[in-house]
Amino acid sequence: MSTRARTMTAWAAVFVAALVCALGGWSYARARGDDTLAYAKSRDAALAAGRHHLARLNSLDGKDARSVDEGLRQWLDATTGPLHDQLARTRKKDASDLRGSGGTARGTVTDAALTALDERAGTAELIATVDVRITPRTGRPGTERKRFEATLARTGDGWKVKALTAIAAGGA
Question: SS3 for 141?
């Protein structure tokens, strides 16, 4: 191959590399400003927070007063709006009812999905199934499967549960 042919091949390779870099930069710039990417991130954040908070709202350790108080505080941290207000209103009664139970409940979200997301309003609707492992102070442990519909609201601290409704096994 002659020197001229090698020089032309080198310039062609540089041109192709520059073209690939330019196309990559253009593609990245389009994706970075893409509204669907921002929507997907918001959806993923709401779903992750909803899963976490539902597990938390279905878990409580009743072995002693401090554990019960901590569990009820976590319930308040996971909620906002009317549900938060209701839990705050009934906290003293809930604590006295649960303090001597000695049992534990551990919620695990087995499946969840957002059915709606309104980024502008900062709301989302979630459906989920939760397995709750109950270990009473006496007797045999067991697992209950529950289904929930939750309304989430975006707050300064992230997504929180605003409303929670249990769904009957046969209903929707």
Answer: coil
In a domain, 75, yes or no: yes
Same domain, 4 and 84: no
Q: For strand 158-167 and strand 104-118, is the pairing parallel, antiparallel, or unpaired?
A: unpaired
Q: What predicted TM-score, i.e. pTM, was given to this entire model?
A: 0.76
Give the dihedral sign, CA 84/85/87/92: positive
In order, the DSSP letters of 23-67 are HHHHHHHHHHT-HHHHHHHHHHHHHHHHHHHHHHHT-EE-SSHHH
One domain for residues 53 and 9: no
Query: How would you class 17 by CB atoms within 10 Å of its CB: exposed for 0-12, middle for 13-18, buried for 19 or more?
Result: exposed
DSSP 90: T
| Nearest in space to 45 (alpha carbons), one of 101, 126, 108 | 126
What is the domain range of residue 22? 1-33
Q: CB within 8 A of 122, min separation 6: which ones?
A: 153, 154
Could you report the average pLDDT of every consecutive run of 10 residues in the chain (172 residues)? 82 86 81 76 96 96 86 96 96 84 90 96 97 88 95 96 90 50
